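Hi there,

I know you've been waiting on this one. I reran it after we fixed the sequence typo, so this is the corrected version. Both the input and the resulting structure follow.
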Amino acid sequence: MGVDRSRVAGLTIIVLAFLILLILIMNYDFPAFEYTGSHTEPTAELVKNNTAVIGPEVGRFLWNYRVIDLIAQAFVLFAAAVCCLALLKTEEKKG
């Protein structure tokens, strides 16, 4: 019984894609908690802050870090294509 080359190729591609995704995640800084502030601020101070800048700041963050969004979308599309191919694969009859 030989090794199925398509499974080995698929596994190799998945591992490479995962490694590339990890490398890209580690290279690009993702300031997820940049806008939380310090934990020593009292809650009354947080309420008094100007909230009019939240919308533009969130928009700036999303446009400046667009590459992270695109990497995630590409990974989801690749995973969806692999899953569709797995569903449509014909099984060989044994015997």
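Quick highlight: Helices lie at 5-27, 43-48, 54-64, 66-88.

Best,
R. S.
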